[in-house]
User: Fold this.
Amino acid sequence: MVPLFISWKSTVYQAFRALSRRQKQPEFLGNTVLTTRLRQVVTIIGQAKRTRPDQDSQAYKILSLVAVSGELPANQIKRLPGGGRYKEKKVKALKNQKLILTYYRDRLRGYRLTANGKNRLLTDHPDRFESFLTGNTETSRPKYEITRRLRLQSIAETTVTMQNAGVKIYPDEKPDVFRPDETVSPDLSISAPAFYNSREIKGLGAESVKIQGARAVGALLTETEIFVVYNTGGSLLKWNYKSEMRTKALMKTVLCRERLSRQYGPESVRALMLGSGMEHVYRLLTSTGGVKRNYFVLDGSYDSFPYLTHDHNGEVLLKLLCDTDKTRQLNDMLSENLYERDPGMLIENDAVDGNGEPALFAYNCDMPRVARFNAALGLHQRRGTIICFDFQADALRRFCGEKVKVQTIDLKKFERRFFP
Assistant:
């Protein structure tokens, strides 16, 4: 059997080796013998080119991710499961088979599907890829302008984080909650965390016009909550208060009041910010929006706005965010050496320590809560405690200063216990 994803040079070499072992070489290759050999080689090459990647293979998973992304940033391959060299070989094999190509422009490198790659996926999985690879969509016909490519790659980076955390990303794995009204099933429900990117949300049709200009890259739906998802990357996110509020209102109307009203209430809508590292959360917490107020600022649009990172740490916390039972277990563990929350205290708190000082569970780095807690401590000249994961400590300590004591949770130990 011909191995998957082998180059034509390797195929020729292996073919001649195999044929040489099969029969003794004559001292002089006549035209007839040479023609026969070449025909056999061509046949083997043709078989290799027609060989389809196994749908459970790493190569096929990379191919699928490129399809739903439109353009997958080259630097995201290293974040996928598997060894670095192994993944490099799979990418090279996909390019050799002319299923994907590298697109480089404006110092931005990414992988895109070829026509052959599109046809293969549409043949294998039309229910999964038809909405991404047909028509005049951004994923079917990626644009070349730098702004559009950055948007595509931002959504792709978010998709990788979601997939690594076990969130459903493909249409055939999750309910189609953003179909036009006339085709929506009344029995819709979310039984597992699912991510819908901004292009899927536009499946609503005319209603999606209301959120043009919004910076959200999609929506994460868990069994109990809806998160409007943003990706700030490594810089300060552009922000339009009115557009983001329209996005929030759309989620409340379409999901909480109409399609999934039995599962979500209006208070279920929160926001989620993803970024390249914890060093960027300080900029977000202290941002004033810039001179023209067109950059991100904590303006009260969302009462809850956790910040997670695009790395393994963030993926572990995303799993926790999607799991209410494990979140409750963690809160119970953190409360063991503390007193119960004081709802009458003027400072937001999750518990109270032995000195009567407030404590905040900040392990999901909920930016508005951290900001409110810090401001209230300063206003009332009190001290308090923040409990977070070890990799978050420096950024939160820098923001809160000396009035806050930071206690940390060991992420590796937490992961071994909660997500073995």
Notes: The chain has 15 helices and twelve strands. Residues 1-9, 22-29, 41-50 have pLDDT under 50 and may be disordered. Residues 146 and 175 are 33 Å apart (CA to CA). The first helix runs from residue 8 to 22.
